[in-house]
Design brief:
It is a single chain. The protein is an alpha/beta fold. It is built from 9 helices and 5 strands; from the N terminus they run H-E-E-E-H-E-H-E-H-H-H-H-H-H. The protein has helices at residues 5-17, 77-88, 118-121, 149-155, 159-169, 178-182, 207-220, 230-234, 242-256, and strands at 23-29, 36-41, 71-75, 97-101, 133-134. The protein has a 5-stranded mixed sheet with strand order 2-1-3-4-5. The protein starts with a helix and ends in a 27-residue tail after the last helix. It comes from Desulfoluna butyratoxydans.
Length: 283
């Protein structure tokens, strides 16, 4: 993927030079080893600072909501799917965007550069689903991948085993909100964790508040999560946050045949109503 960077720089410089866009959202070299950081450039000469490799883990769609200018954004498969989400949810207009599509072969794990991130290993949409310019040929999509093997393992547990599993999963959480801040879906002006009237969840690290935060945040992502892995990439405690959203992703797929962010022409299941909607999940 490092070979893509020349084309990304060329496209970005051209778009800024001819005034097609006012800024480009991409990645530059980070200050921590094996990590690149999101950046926004407004001058054509700064395109030289853009980078692209297997350490571009965060989701750049997180940085375009609520903006009014014309924007170019470098987008791999999951980024492009979240851009689709933003268009559907009226957080940005399609006309505002020039999407520089990046076919992706996966990001490496932040703790083990010898292997792919867990979400990338099971990704079925490596190519951008929406783009205006493409920096390389499309890559072959993965096939015969079991996306929900881990979910089924949890589903097979009894109640006590599930409780113990999630207790252990969240044992290291400090409520730093890195997962929320990195998530392109978490753009509410006032998050439920900050509401005081009513107060949905306490501000400390009481185990009940920690559980409430994670479960409620996951439900807010139901039918919208693209499994981009930004939450896990951002977590300083290496908590497998995707264990919450992956179950909901599986349910949306099996109940509604829905995968988030693949089309701007259809509303998500929890944003629409049909008389023949399945109701098996209703208790």
């Amino acid at each position: 993927m490092e070979s893509y960077i020349g084309k990304i720089k060329e496209i970005s410089e051209r778009l800024l030079n001819d005034g097609t866009v006012e800024c480009v959202v991409g990645f530059r070299k980070g200050t921590v080893a094996n990590t690149n950081e999101p950046c926004m450039i407004t001058k054509a000469e700064d395109a030289k600072d853009l980078v692209w490799d297997a350490n571009c883990r965060l989701n750049l769609a997180n940085y375009i909501t609520g903006r009014t200018e014309k924007i170019a954004i470098v987008a791999k498969g999951c980024d492009s799917r979240n851009i689709v989400n933003h268009i559907i949810e009226n957080k940005i207009s399609r006309d505002q965007l020039v999407i520089i599509g990046v076919p992706c072969k996966g990001m490496v794990d932040k703790n083990n550069p010898e292997q792919l991130q867990a979400n990338c290993a099971t990704c079925l949409h490596r190519n951008p689903v929406i783009y205006d310019e493409l920096c390389a040929d499309l890559v072959e999509e993965q096939k015969d991948v079991d996306r929900y093997e881990d979910v089924r393992k949890v589903e097979a547990m009894d109640t006590q085993e599930k409780w113990a599993f999630f207790e252990e999963l969240l044992s290291g959480c400090t409520r730093c909100y890195a997962c929320k801040n990195a998530c392109p879906l978490c753009y509410c002006p006032t998050c439920f964790v900050d509401e005081s009237r009513p107060q949905w969840v306490g501000k400390g690290t009481d185990p009940i508040d920690i559980r409430t935060y994670h479960f409620l945040r996951a439900y807010h992502c139901a039918g919208r999560c693209t499994d981009c892995g930004a939450c896990e990439a951002a977590c300083p405690q290496n908590i497998k946050v995707r264990n919450f959203t992956k179950k909901l992703e599986k349910d949306c797929y099996e109940l509604y045949g829905w995968e988030a962010g693949l089309t701007v022409d259809q509303r998500p299941p929890l944003d629409s109503f049909k008389l023949d909607d399945p109701e098996k999940f209703i208790m």
